[in-house]
Amino acid sequence: MLNRVRIVLVETSHPGNIGAAARAMNNMCLEQLVLVSPKHFPSEEATARASGADDLLARAPVCDSLDAALKGCRLIIGTSARERTVSSPLLNPRACAAKIIEESAVGEVALVFGRESSGLTNEELDRCNFLVQIPTNSAYSSLNLGAAVQVLSYEIYLAWLEGRETAPGPLREVATAEMMEGFHGHLAQALEDIGFANPRQSDKLLRRLRSLFHRARPDVDELNILRGILSAAQGRKSMRR
Amino acid sequence: MLNRVRIVLVETSHPGNIGAAARAMNNMCLEQLVLVSPKHFPSEEATARASGADDLLARAPVCDSLDAALKGCRLIIGTSARERTVSSPLLNPRACAAKIIEESAVGEVALVFGRESSGLTNEELDRCNFLVQIPTNSAYSSLNLGAAVQVLSYEIYLAWLEGRETAPGPLREVATAEMMEGFHGHLAQALEDIGFANPRQSDKLLRRLRSLFHRARPDVDELNILRGILSAAQGRKSMRR
Q1: What tens digit of pLDDT does each residue of A56-97 get?
Q2: Which residue, of A70, A149, A172, B162, is most buried by count of CB atoms within 10 Å of its CB?
Q3: CA angle, A60 as apex, A96 and A161 as ends, to 5°?
Q4: For B226, nearest residue in chain A (alpha carbons)
Q5: pLDDT one-digit tens code per residue, A190-236
Q6: Class of the A177-240 domain?
Q7: Superfamily of chain region A2-163
């Protein structure tokens, strides 16, 4: 599915952003980068910023029209930093990603990013089934192009992960209730032995400590360490006798 | 709430990444950038990449230790690109963002990013209550630093937008980072004093205990109780002398 998702960059000015986009895609298991009339490409700066994603960059076709870049796509989503009068429905990134994963199960889909300075033209937006907008600070809404590709690639990858049937991850082994009770008994005795707690006044104290260790949920090893510490503290006392 | 979220960058090598982080934060309404021993700063490249976020960049304090950067924080989350043996609980970005928004309602919180090449050291990760990992391509997991800040800032902003619709519940007061450090120092000394820990062999032990108390997140009263217990255990020893 992820190999049917095209990231299309239209008339990118800064080659560094093309490299950053390739790296972001590679991190998120996306493979198809398509460039429409980039200002400078190929470029050393793009390759440097792509880091380990230079293969992906080298494979990227360069098209001279958006039409060529979108060939064969069943779903086209355009990115937009601001409200548009265009009538394509607006999605948030999460809904956009879910849609892309849903539809890439059956065919090619494209996510289109415009120019750094001015985004996509109305004519280009008209080619899109949906628009997607990344929520931002209204006073400073312009994301860097590479950063926008990163956020949407991340959401697409998450949607893909969620879509797979996943077994729940392993849980930490924690000490059993009876081990915890044994520990709390030991703790109470040790506090008395080292002269910290007066057994008649210590109920409230012991409840505080109980609550603290319940939150920590120690595993068996940790409980053994704690009991070793208590014994060491007690041992000093018995040595004194 | 968003103004109580610190983004802490530790020993960043490339000033362009500092600028990209500032821009990403500004896009997502985050205001507090804190730099720990950056290789080159201030820097023209950082300012250029910050784009409209140069104010935020100019305000960023430069600290010479992680401790200084974390001063006053009630919650510390570290970023990690790979599995660690460290046992701090691992969050995904969405859960991390929800936690940050929840806790920033009552105090300062920090999200810590490590070096481009090697991330955070185990010692630095030990300072964290939680770790967060951005899901990635397992064959190519290393996100650009600016891109990682972008993804997590975006999730934090989304969580904040979502949280505006629901009233937050009351949160426990927890001890600050520096109080926790004071406690861990006292604990190490007490373990030595009672003859439990050989200082040369105790690194692993102390890390286990650190992880346990990070999970428990004691409040100030509880921390005072724990330190009282340590002092009582130590006192017995000095009485013997």
Answers
A1: 999 999 999 999 999 988 889 999 877 666 567 889 999 999
A2: A149
A3: 35
A4: A209
A5: 999 998 877 667 788 888 888 788 778 788 889 999 999 999 999 86
A6: mainly alpha
A7: SPOUT methyltransferase, trefoil knot domain (3.40.1280.10)
Interface mutation target, options A229, A230, A234, chain B, most CBs of B under 10 Å: A229
Q: Report the residue of B154, B155, B207, B239 to disrupt the A interface, i.e. the one with the largest count of A CBs within 10 Å.
A: B154
Instruction: Provide DSSP, A47-75.
Output: HHHHGGGHHHHHH--EESSHHHHTTTEEE
Domain ranges, ordered by start, for chain B = 2-163, 177-240
d(CA B112, CA B12): 12
Q: What is the distance between the alpha carbons of residues A51 and A14, in angstroms, rounded to a whole number?
A: 16
Tokens of A48: 């440097």
A32, containing H or E segment? strand A32-36
Q: In what order do the strands lie in the sheet with B108-113?
A: B62-63, B32-36, B5-10, B108-113, B73-79, B130-132, B90-91
Q: How far is CA B49 from CA A113, A226, B54, in A?
A: 19, 50, 9
From B110, B113, B18, select the one nearest B72 (Cα to Cα): B110
